[in-house]
Amino acid sequence: MKNPLYKRLLRELKSEFGKYLVIFLLMTLTIGEISGFLVADESMIKAYNDSFTLYNVEDGNFALQTKADSALKQQLEALDITIYDLFYTDRILSNDSTLRIFQNREQVNLACVMEGRLASKPGEIAIDRMYADNNQLKVGDTISDGSNTWTITGLAALSDYSTMFESNSDSMFDAVKFGVAMVCPEEFSEFESNSLVYSYAWKYNDAPAGEKEEMERSQQLMKEINSLSPLKKFVPRYLNQAIQFTGEDMGSDRAMMTVLLYILIAILAFVFGITINSTIVKEANVIGTLRASGYTKRELIRHYMAMPLIVTLISALIGNIMGYTFFKNFNAGMYYGSYSLPTYVTIWSPQAFLETTLVPILLMLVITWLMLRRKLSLSPIKFLRRDLRSGRQHHAFRLKSSIPVFSRFRIRVFLQNSGSYLLMLVGILFANLLLMFGLIFPSILDHYQETITDNLLCNYQYLLEVPVELMAGDDSPETLLRMLAYVSQVQTDNEDAEEFSAYSLKTLSKGAYKGEEVLLYGIVDDSHYITLESDDNEVCISKAYADKFHLAKGDTITLKEQYDDKTYTFPIGGIYDYEGALAIFMPKSLLNHTFGLSDGYFSGYFSDTEITDIEEQYIATVIDLDALTKISRQLNVSMGGMMILVDAISVIMFLILIYLLAKIVIEKNAQAISMTKILGYENKEISRLYLLPTSIVVVTLLLLSLPLETAVMKYLFERIVMTELSGWIPIYFDPMMYVKMILLGIGAYVVVAVLEYRRIRRVPMEEALKNVE
Amino acid sequence: MFLELKQIKKSFGTGQSRVQVLKGIDLTLEKGEFCVMLGPSGSGKSTLLNIIGGIDQADEGEILIGGDRMADMDEKQLTLYRRRHLGYIFQMYNLIPNLTVRENIEVGAYLGTDPLPVEELLDTLGLTEHQNKLPNQLSGGQQQRTAIGRAIVKNPDILLCDEPTGALDYNTSKEILKLIETVNQKYGNTVILVTHNDALKDMATRVVKLRDGGIRKNYLNETRILAQDLDW
């Protein structure tokens, strides 16, 4: 015979439909979103990983100062690699963005055409799909660089540009102001040769076995190529941010999303636990009778666990269906908003299913089982006597009679519901942390933008294109001649311009932190732009550097060469107030001496006005306000929309949790409320007794939780910036954010309070007469 | 003998507020007996019933049921004992509010290895026409009849009734007593009925009077009358 108690379940569902519906919705939407995220993530990672073979992605690329002739190519290919031309030209378009134009690819780094077709005749162009989205361009539109006009024939994803890094040393990609495109060979041949970058992709004839071998081979290759022809740029694939960043970023979000899901399920399990507890209190006599009649504890635990588990199971199933449909598209859309990925095929992900179905059910099972086991371990007689306190008998908490009676009453309600209120604290913390995350993000980016604008080193930093052989540091007459030739090419008459030397090193990796590039500036004595307060043998680090690694004056820092293991240690003599980048400032003489560069060597200019008399080919990078704010601009594009969603989710979650817990407080006291009505209390007075304690608790918790949330947010933010971003964005807590959080919290609670007031009004007077003992 | 109680003692509270509720009860019942346990409030009759029912424990003494010592049973075995041998009826019916009359009875049937036919029982209890009603649609008497149905459907060896008519009016009380009597006669269960209503002693085969935690009188009722002839 099936346990007849199960017949209650459907009726329980009907009578408590509101409660189960909100829990179901919250759980389904969360599971749906996380499942959709995991499926999209996994499908896209697969598409991304497959793209390496499918689109024959390079093993690396390099650029030469001059075009390689066939003899040089033969020499290069003798290094056991295959070389492919991958020339490009960077064009500034009328919309002030840079478009890197290649010729249609046929052998390496192939493109995935996502809409339309590739360019087939002059005047046509196929552009990156994401760049098109971000600049509101579509097939059929025209774009112009002032001298050429192209009609867009197709939108594509280039396999070597899944992330739009204009330069591999950029701290952040920029999918708004930088894009890639392809034209037909006839069109490409029309570009003036001095505007072309002679870039080549290579593939190893026999692929290196592992990461270490790949690193060794690429370093060897760099030296060998450089000895054949001076290198302008050398980027092996494993260091190419435009290729690698997507894969690394997609993988890293997984853990955070799954943890979010588990926290929410645990909170809901506790909500279930508390509602079950209140049901148990309500049904104590029945439970006592059933236990006295021979029902086992296990049978009753199973019975009371059934509903939470059924709701979780249905939520998990429907959530997963939604995850594979609506939410998958939504999340894939978010990836497509940040990365230029090829088309993907949805794959069935057993791990996602496990994480969004089995684990939530298990979590619900374990938490509700533990809570029920504790509650139902009381003896049947205790249930019959409605004495449901476990352990020793507690005396009533003594309250001074000088306290007004209404206040005493409220204190009793508070004590009676301390468990619910504790859970409320956890719920408020969690929901508010999410809300803070959603609200803080735009304010951090705005603040960052303002800070950067206020403390620029100068309006323009020019990093010059230094011939690689000058970096070798040898004093041969040939090198000195080259140096003279270089200096004559990069001289400027701009009176604002001030020389500096620069060198790039890398921070040491540690755990999840992979290390990043740091620019070292060698500053001339009596600089107009930077005043160093450190001793001659010490360095100053930028404030961003100090904040990111918690460094102070007197500490030392160790950095390493980008492409080998040679390390350098510098004592910190001061912190320079500069938020724009991780940078190190030292006297020019110290820098040149440290890296074996000649005394007269310099590789850039600071200037407050634009330098116009150096040919573009000698300028590698210009760091201006636009370049420095690239990171905040891109983060706004990638995540700005999501933050509004996070705000909405957190407010909904807040509403639901407070609603459920406030409802329990009222339901638990239904009989007493009914009795007070019989005694002649008005609804308003009853609300002051039973609703006001919850209101006080909610407002107090809202206020008290803020410092804790601030501390947690600070910790999380630093961790995220540390592991996910190159560079540094300081956290900023806008006072208005706190005001918004409190107002949103109170606003949401007012909605709940109105609903609960209605519930109090609806408690019938017969309730008190139903179960008189 | 079927049920044997030896020197059962039970106290509540600690220190100076400690009260001895049962001061050494000795009692023996045969199978099929209808025992009415009488006593004023605080005499220990409900406590004794709960100890027999295995839902409360004696501080001292021994209970033997069909030869098995209750003290040797762990919690699991006690549950099994209640499941197999006991039926409980309380003053406050304690029905499951969102199950119908029939389903409440089925909750009891589920526990029995050879339960009585529910249809027949509904008929015996006069509940056939109310079988699909929820408890809040029933009168007090109907609710108590349902509670009786739930207790006896598994055909327990012992039926423990704690003030089963305490919340009912005169006529309904007689109706319920008649029903318990019928059950006792029809199915042969041992019935222990706790009450403070002295008039009920006349329907018993054995009368046990308790006062101040001890048995004041324990005798076989030679002049048993039917429940329908009771008057108080």
List keywords for this structure.
heterodimer, A: 773 residues, alpha+beta, 11-stranded mixed sheet, 24 helices, elongated, B: 232 residues, alpha/beta, 6-stranded mixed sheet, 27% strand
Can you give the helix content of chain B as a percent range? 25-40%
Strand order of the largest sheet of chain B: 6-7-8-3-9-10
C-alpha Rg of chain B, in Å? 17 Å
Number of strands of chain B: 10
Please, how many helices of chain B?
Answer: 6
CA radius of gyration of chain A is 33 Å
What is the total number of structural domains of chain B?
A: 1
The CATH homologous superfamily of chain B is termed P-loop containing nucleotide triphosphate hydrolases
CATH level 1 name of chain B: Alpha Beta
The end-to-end distance of chain B, rounded to whole angstroms, is 33 Å
Mean pLDDT of chain A: 86
Beta-strand percent range of chain B: 25-35%
Structure summary:
The complex is a heterodimer of chains A (773) and B (232). Chain A is α+β, with helices and mostly antiparallel strands and 773 residues long. In chain B, helix 5 (140-152) packs parallel to helix 6 (170-187).
